[in-house]
């Protein structure tokens, strides 16, 4: 089951190209007809149009001038930029240049150009009321119209990655087109030369006016600079800033040296203050004492005296003269040592105080130098500002003076940055309309439009046209196809007798195929009573009922009942006179017996029960118990009973009959009845549990899509050599 679902999904995703081909094949003559008609119409219009000639001249626009001093710098023009070329192209299309060309070539008096573009249309309408004459247009209006027509006929086409541009002009006159194209190029070159001369003159006048003011501004700026120098006593350049800077650097260096000296002495001074002078061991820790040569000599002398005292003390007593002399010598040496140490300590303290005072003095000098430097800096700033102002005004003055000299030197020179590289010649062949191309394009576009319309028509057509539509749109079983019958071609008066008279035709074979399908579907349940219905009248249910009855009559005993008591047709088809013969309504009402009402139609080998007089309540009769009993009686006497009933989409007769018959055949006219309407009618039957044997697609025009329908019936018929005339 899952495999079947997957296969179905896969099939739905495949684009059916054959369906597209069928649609195209069905509408092929309409598509070709539309394309042919549109091509003929466009061809007639195109070949009646006035030929237009196109002349082309080529203009070279150079990016700069080679021989003339550049004046465009006065206006800031960048001639090599893409904006420059774009500007030139717009000038070529400008109104002023077009007016000059029109006057130069006297186009207003040229019949091929000056004719009113609406004149041709006016001639098509002879009524003066439609195009009433107005007052004569002014010269400005005439020129305005001429400029507009000229603009429409002019095309400027720059050639990519080059300095070339095509000037193309279109006109019914080939010679005029070439003349106008060349004249327009010449007028452009002349306009550039005129513009340069005018720009040179304007630039010279403007520069002279500006130089007078600039000269006064320069003198004023230089005068302010000189007055400031004299006021501040500035001599030379720099305003004394160089000397001040050198002095500041010198003082800064001295401060650094003094600070280092002071810090060194301060460290030594702090160390001495923490030393006990009375303690010789601590005195030896003082670096200045250790580094003093005199202290080293005194200490050496003390050591020598102490050695001698020790030697004498071993021999003599304390009061011995030599001991007294040694002790005196030792006291003198110690006194000298202490005095010298104190002198060194005092010297370190004095040096520290001197270094501290020197540092403070240098810092004060530095502060004064800084104040003086700042003052000089302010003066220098004002000086440089005045100098810069004077220099700027001098440069501006020199620039304008140079430009004035250049402009004056080039005032008499005229040169354009453009020239004609390839002049236009009168064309031999018209440029448009391109008649063959237009007709060919029209044919192709019409084919495409026809294809689109065909598919659109197919998409909007919601009728049942093919057996695939029966399954996809109606969700029903396809019982068979019945082709449409051309009664005039077959020389038949009525389609009812066509099955009998053309027994070997495609129509008869289609009916027999439906008969076979019904027989095969009723092998197990014995479907004797078959009702034939449709959605709306005119779909061919009566002809289908008769044909099926004739087909079954070739094999079985058949009774055809006309149960359409609203618009009965069977009696007319078989030639029964309803005025003097009872029918179904009489039998149900009990006014006639079945034997009296049944008519034997020998030609079709069937029995027929006509509808009888039309009752006021057909639905009540068909749903009555007596009609049900009547059907049960007829089952015993006939092998097959075919009932032609009213359309199920219009009335409910078929719904009432569906409960009393074995199966129902639903007839749908091909390509006529909307599928939604048929589906709704089938849905109503299914809701009452009606057994629908299948759908018969009737009046099918196989010639519209023979390639499609041949796979169902036509190929089969031709293979078995069935003729159309029996």
Provide structural commentary:
The chain is α/β, with parallel strands linked by helices and 726 residues long. The protein has four domains: 18-49 and 433-460, no CATH class; 51-203 and 417-422, 2-Layer Sandwich (Bacterial polysaccharide co-polymerase-like), CATH 3.30.1890; 239-409, no CATH class; 480-719, P-loop containing nucleotide triphosphate hydrolases (Rossmann fold). Helices cover 60% and strands 10% of the residues. It has 28 helices and twelve strands. It has helices at residues 2-13, 17-26, 28-47, 82-92, 95-105, 111-114, 119-124, 139-153, 174-232, 241-273, 280-283, 287-291, 293-313, 321-409, 435-460, 467-473, 487-490, 498-501, 506-521, 541-553, 570-574, 584-589, 594-597, 618-622, 625-637, 653-658, 675-687, 706-719; strands at residues 53-61, 154-158, 164-171, 418-422, 478-483, 529-534, 558-562, 598-601, 606-609, 640-644, 663-669, 692-700. The strands form two sheets. It has an eight-stranded mixed beta sheet with strand order 5-12-11-6-10-7-9-8, with helices on both faces. It has a four-stranded antiparallel beta sheet with strand order 2-3-1-4. Helix 9 packs antiparallel against helix 14 (321-409). The radius of gyration is 64 Å and the shape is elongated. The model is unreliable at 1-12, 65-80, 115-133 and 714-726 (pLDDT under 50).
């Amino acid at each position: 089951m899952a495999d079947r679902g997957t296969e179905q999904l896969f099939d739905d995703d495949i684009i059916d190209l054959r369906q597209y081909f069928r649609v195209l094949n069905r509408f092929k003559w309409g598509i070709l007809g539309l394309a042919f008609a549109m091509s003929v119409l466009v061809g007639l219009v195109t070949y009646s149009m006035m030929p237009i000639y196109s002349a082309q001249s080529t203009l070279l626009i150079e990016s700069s001038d080679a021989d003339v001093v550049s004046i465009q710098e006065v206006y800031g023009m960048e001639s090599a930029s893409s904006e420059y070329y774009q500007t030139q192209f717009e000038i070529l299309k400008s109104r002023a240049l077009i007016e000059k060309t029109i006057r130069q070539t006297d186009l207003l008096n040229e019949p091929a150009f000056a004719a009113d573009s609406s004149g041709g249309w006016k001639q098509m309408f002879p009524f003066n009321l439609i195009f009433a004459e107005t007052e004569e247009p002014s010269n400005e209006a005439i020129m305005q119209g001429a400029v507009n027509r000229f603009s429409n006929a002019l095309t400027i086409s720059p050639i990519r990655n080059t300095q070339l541009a095509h000037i193309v002009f279109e006109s019914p006159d080939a010679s005029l087109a070439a003349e106008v194209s060349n004249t327009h190029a010449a007028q452009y070159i002349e306009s550039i030369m005129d513009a340069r001369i005018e720009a040179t003159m304007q630039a010279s006048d403007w520069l002279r006016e500006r130089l007078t003011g600039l000269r006064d501004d320069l003198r004023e700026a230089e005068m302010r600079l000189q007055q400031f120098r004299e006021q501040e006593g500035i001599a030379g350049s720099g305003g004394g800033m160089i000397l001040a800077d050198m002095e500041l650097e010198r003082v800064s260096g001295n401060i650094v040296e003094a600070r280092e000296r002071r810090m060194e002495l301060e460290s030594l001074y702090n160390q001495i203050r923490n030393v006990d002078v009375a303690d010789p061991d601590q005195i030896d820790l003082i670096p200045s004492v250790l580094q003093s040569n005199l202290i080293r000599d005194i200490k050496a002398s003390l050591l020598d005296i102490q050695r001698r005292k020790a030697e004498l003390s071993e021999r003599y007593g304390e009061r011995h003269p030599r001991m007294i002399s040694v002790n005196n010598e030792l006291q003198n040496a110690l006194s000298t040592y202490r005095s010298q140490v104190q002198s060194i300590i005092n010297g370190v303290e004095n040096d520290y105080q001197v270094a501290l005072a020197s540092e403070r003095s240098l810092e004060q000098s530095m502060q004064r130098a800084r104040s003086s430097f700042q003052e000089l800096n302010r003066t220098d700033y004002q000086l440089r500002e005045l100098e810069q102002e004077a220099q700027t005004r001098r440069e501006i003055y020199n620039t304008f003076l140079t430009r004035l000299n250049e402009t004056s030197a080039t005032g008499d020179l005229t040169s354009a940055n453009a020239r004609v590289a390839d002049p236009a010649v009168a064309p031999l062949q018209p440029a448009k309309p391109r008649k063959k191309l237009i007709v060919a394009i029209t044919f192709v576009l019409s084919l495409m439009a026809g294809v689109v319309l065909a598919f659109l028509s197919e998409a909007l057509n919601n009728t049942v046209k093919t057996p695939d539509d029966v399954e996809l749109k109606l969700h029903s079983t396809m019982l068979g196809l019945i082709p449409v019958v051309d009664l005039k071609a077959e020389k038949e008066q009525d389609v009812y007798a066509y099955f009998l008279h053309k027994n070997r035709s495609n129509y008869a074979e289609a009916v027999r195929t439906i008969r076979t399908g019904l027989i095969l579907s009723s092998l197990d349940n014995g479907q004797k009573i078959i009702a034939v219905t449709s959605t709306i009248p005119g779909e061919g249910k009566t002809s289908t009922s008769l044909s099926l009855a004739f087909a079954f009559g070739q094999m079985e005993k058949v009774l055809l009942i006309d149960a359409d008591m609203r618009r009965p047709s069977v009696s007319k088809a078989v030639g029964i006179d309803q005025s003097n013969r009872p029918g179904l309504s009489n039998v149900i009402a009990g006014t006639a017996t079945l034997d009296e009402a049944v008519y034997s139609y020998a030609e079709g080998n069937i029995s027929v029960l006509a509808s009888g007089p039309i009752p006021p309540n057909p639905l009540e009769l068909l749903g009555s118990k007596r009609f049900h009993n009547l059907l049960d009686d007829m089952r015993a006497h006939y092998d097959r009973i075919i009932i032609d009933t009213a359309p199920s989409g219009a009335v409910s007769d078929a719904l009432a009959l569906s409960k009393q018959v074995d199966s129902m055949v639903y007839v749908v006219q091909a390509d006529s009845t909307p599928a939604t309407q048929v589906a709704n009618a089938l849905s109503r039957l299914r809701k009452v549990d009606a057994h629908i044997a299948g759908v018969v697609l009737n009046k099918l025009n196989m010639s519209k899509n023979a390639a499609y329908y041949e796979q169902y019936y036509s190929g089969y018929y031709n293979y078995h050599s069935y003729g159309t005339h029996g």
